[in-house]
TrEMBL record:
Family: Belongs to the eukaryotic ribosomal protein eL15 family.
UniProt GO BP: cytoplasmic translation
Region Disordered, annotated ranges: 112-132, 207-230
Taxonomy, superkingdom: Eukaryota
Entry's Gene Ontology cellular component terms: cytosolic large ribosomal subunit
Name recorded for this polypeptide: Ribosomal protein L15
InterPro entries: Rbsml_eL15_core_dom_sf (IPR024794), Ribosomal_eL15 (IPR000439), Ribosomal_eL15_CS (IPR020925), Ribosomal_uL23/eL15/eS24_sf (IPR012678)
Recorded coiled-coil stretches: none
Organism: Brenthis ino
PROSITE patterns noted in UniProt: RIBOSOMAL_L15E (PS01194)
Length: 245
């Protein structure tokens, strides 16, 4: 890791005396002005990002443990005054200006029970399972949906992981006010004002929602070409006899 500085080399002749020190060789003095522009820079957000890559370090273990304790004292869903991870929030589209809102929510970890009375499913033995069921969507997508239901007038932009303990996972959801002038006049974000983007989180259009749908770019996502797994399956299993005209 390089220390960024701006410096200037000054040459002083032999026999120089600086205070009580006598030099019998040429001296090069460095002052902070001119060189070192080509050294790589690291901003504050880059340092924060590196911290979160080492979650098992002593600093992060202590910090996350204290944060989780604080979150447990709050309600299940509440508005955060500022993002806990400003570097991550900015990478996902957040900007510290009017029209952007941060909500923090916790989701219970683990699988989900089938909601049937007294465990009676009234079907074939294949569908008798009640306890060991796993949700098809990830917990982050579920957290976005719950925040979107509470804040119906806002648009869910994205979300990110904050902390977790033995029972819950905590996420922060970035929301945008589509009726705010600062949003409507910003060409980088006013695409979300269109009505087609209402409740993106309910339709799996956010980043977390797309991951559970198997959408993405590259050779690993060939099973969802055409928009979904079903569309890809139908295209591969349909016999198309093209007629020469």
């Amino acid at each position: 890791m390089w220390l960024h500085c701006q410096c200037d080399i000054q040459y002083l002749p032999t026999g120089l005396q600086l205070g009580k020190f006598q030099f019998s060789f040429p001296v090069y003095l460095w002052s902070t002005r001119d060189v070192c522009h080509r050294l790589p820079k690291m901003g504050a957000y880059r340092y924060i990002q590196e911290l979160y890559r080492k979650k098992l370090s002593d600093v992060m273990r202590f910090l996350l443990r204290v944060r989780v304790w604080q979150y447990r004292q709050l309600t299940r869903m509440h508005r955060a005054p500022r993002p806990t991870r400003p570097d991550k929030a900015r990478r996902l589209g957040y900007r510290a200006k009017q029209g952007y809102v941060i909500f923090r929510i916790r989701v219970r970890r683990g699988g989900r029970k089938r909601p049937v009375p007294k465990g009676a499913t009234y079907g074939k033995p294949k569908s008798h399972g009640v306890n060991q069921l796993k949700p098809t969507r990830n917990l982050q997508s579920i957290a976005e949906e719950r925040v979107g239901r509470r804040c119906g007038g806002l648009r869910v932009l994205n979300s990110y992981w904050v902390a977790q303990d033995s029972s819950y996972k905590y996420y922060e959801v970035i929301l945008v006010d589509p009726s705010h002038k600062a949003i409507r006049r910003d060409p980088k974000i006013n695409w979300i004002v269109n009505a087609v983007h209402k409740h993106r989180e309910m339709r799996g259009l956010t980043s977390a929602g797309k991951s559970s749908r198997g959408l993405g770019k590259g050779h690993r996502f060939s099973q969802t070409k055409g928009g979904s797994r079903r569309a890809a399956w139908i295209r591969r299993n349909t016999l198309q006899l093209r007629r020469k005209r």
